């Protein structure tokens, strides 16, 4: 299936996105995390597009979407969710499943809190919503939350180096040769754009707002019981397996699968994960039928 590369302007921000599949098929919205972009879904998209309408936007400040100046745009997760929510409306997505990864998780769960009727299913790939899912690797970031000093902000710059970005891809992977080097190389190049470091540090500080919302995310899962699949790299240095297992506490029907890999599980186990997702969606979305949506091409070019 061919992937199209489009953009839509919402609230003054140009949002780049990848799109594939029939526009009248059930929709799946893929939400990436730090420090990457929709590029992480380059192989998953065609594997899902035979049966689903797949849309993968770049968050503001990431990938090929606009990175507005910090004086004009506050880099908070609430603002990211507002832009992505407006994006779904701009391209006429009415009901959709969400695939949430890393930063994409708090963005996606915020969308679900705001419009629970629009969410048909949730796929969480190392997308956390529980404090027990946070590893000790978060300690320097949590210290910055407690004391947002210049020194603690500067200490987080180590997370923005090319070595740290590559480390996120290869940590916990049995064979580094399975990880495409263009993945972390592209991420590093985009992180190195002037001013992007400050954007990322702003988001590191605001991540505390996501942890504060964990009880609301959990209440949403308990109350609305969305079909939920967790596909988790069990060697993730940031988001631990208990974060995946915790979904069952709020939705006993949640399906949880672990893979012997790291944070970017799609890089090494993309085919296996895609197969599990297709099976999950074929069962859970059958009741919804085709998504109510008209073609977005004229609107989004």
What does this structure look like?
Helix 4 packs across helix 8 (196-224). The two termini are 20 Å apart. This protein is α/β, with parallel strands linked by helices and 301 residues long. Helix 1 (44-49) links the parallel strand 3 (27-31) and strand 4. The longest helix is centred in the C-terminal third of the chain and has 29 residues, at 196-224. Helix content is 42%, strand content 16%. It has a single domain (4-291), classed as Rossmann fold (3-Layer(aba) Sandwich). It has an 8-stranded mixed beta sheet, sandwiched between helices. The chain is built from 12 helices and 8 strands. The model is unreliable at 288-301 (pLDDT under 50). The protein has helices at residues 44-49, 77-90, 104-114, 139-146, 150-155, 162-170, 181-191, 196-224, 241-245, 247-250, 265-284, 297-300, and strands at 4-10, 13-20, 27-31, 53-57, 96-100, 119-124, 228-233, 255-259.
- The N- to C-terminal Cα distance equals 20 Å
Low-confidence stretches: 288-301
Task: Label the CATH architecture.
Answer: 3-Layer(aba) Sandwich
CATH topology: Rossmann fold
Shape: globular
Radius of gyration: 18 Å
Q: Let me know the CATH homologous superfamily.
A: Alpha/Beta hydrolase fold, catalytic domain
* Strands, count: 8
- Report the β-strand fraction as a percent range: 15-25%
Tally of individual domains = 1
Provide the structure class: alpha/beta
N-to-C series of helices and strands: EEEHEHEHEHHHHHEHHEHH
Largest sheet: 8 strands, mixed
Indicate the mean pLDDT. 94
Assembly type:
single chain
Question: Which secondary structure elements does this structure contain, and how are they paired or packed?
Answer:
Blueprint: E1 4-10, E2 13-20, E3 27-31, H1 44-49, E4 53-57, H2 77-90, E5 96-100, H3 104-114, E6 119-124, H4 139-146, H5 150-155, H6 162-170, H7 181-191, H8 196-224, E7 228-233, H9 241-245, H10 247-250, E8 255-259, H11 265-284, H12 297-300
Parallel strand pairs: 3-4, 3-5, 5-6, 6-7, 7-8
Antiparallel strand pairs: 1-2, 2-4
